[in-house]
């Protein structure tokens, strides 16, 4: 039997460093020191699943969600007041920070790929 737990806490050093590093390159992903950690527990140990970054003031968005998947990867979903959906992932590896961005706006789609903040590919649909 497994139990799923959530606990709001101060971000670990690794979680905070990831979000701070990502924000320095991609400032639309905001910094916070609070996270809601999600665990799976088998009554012996907690297994980390993910952590939702907790923000106090994101009123300029209908939805603003950033989830830390591990110490090198996070996913994000934003919904603007005019119903533009923006989502994707940011990963760090080999000293680089890679971002995928998907944007849906009134039937138009956009996919962008960035390395260290520089656009390397864009596909419009």
Topology:
Elements (H helix, E strand, L loop, with lengths): L2 E8 L2 H13 L8 E8 L4 E9 L8 E8 L2 E7 L5 E9 L2 E10 L2 E8 L2 E7 L1
Which properties best describe this structure?
125 residues, mainly beta, nine-stranded antiparallel beta sheet, 1 helix, 9 strands
Beta content: over 45%
CA-based shape: globular
Counted by DSSP, the helix tally is 1
How far the N terminus sits from the C terminus, by CA atoms, comes to 46 Å
Main pleated-sheet profile: 9 strands, antiparallel
- Over all CA atoms, what is the radius of gyration? 16 Å
The average pLDDT value, as a whole number, equals 94
By secondary-structure content and strand pairing, the structural class works out as: mainly beta
User: Low-confidence stretches at least 5 residues in length (pLDDT < 50)?
Assistant: none
Q: What is the number of independent domains?
A: 1
Structure, described:
The structure is a single chain. With 125 residues, the chain is mainly beta. It has one domain. Helix content is 10%, strand content 59%. The protein has a nine-stranded antiparallel β-sheet, with helices on one face. The mean pLDDT is 94.
Outline of this structure?
The chain has one helix spanning 13-25, and strands spanning 3-10, 34-41, 46-54, 63-70, 73-79, 85-93, 96-105, 108-115, 118-124.
């Amino acid at each position: 039997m497994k139990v799923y737990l959530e606990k709001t806490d101060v971000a670990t050093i690794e979680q905070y460093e990831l979000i701070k590093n990502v924000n320095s390159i991609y400032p639309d992903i905001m910094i916070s020191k609070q996270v809601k950690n999600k665990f799976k527990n088998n009554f012996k140990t907690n297994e980390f699943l993910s952590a939702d970054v907790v923000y106090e003031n994101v009123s300029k968005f209908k939805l603003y969600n950033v989830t830390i998947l591990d110490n090198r990867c996070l996913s994000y979903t934003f919904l603007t007041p005019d119903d533009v959906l923006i989502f994707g992932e940011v990963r760090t590896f080999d000293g680089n920070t890679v971002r995928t961005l998907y944007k849906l706006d009134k039937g138009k789609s956009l996919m962008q790929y960035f390395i260290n903040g520089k656009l390397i590919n864009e596909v419009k649909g």
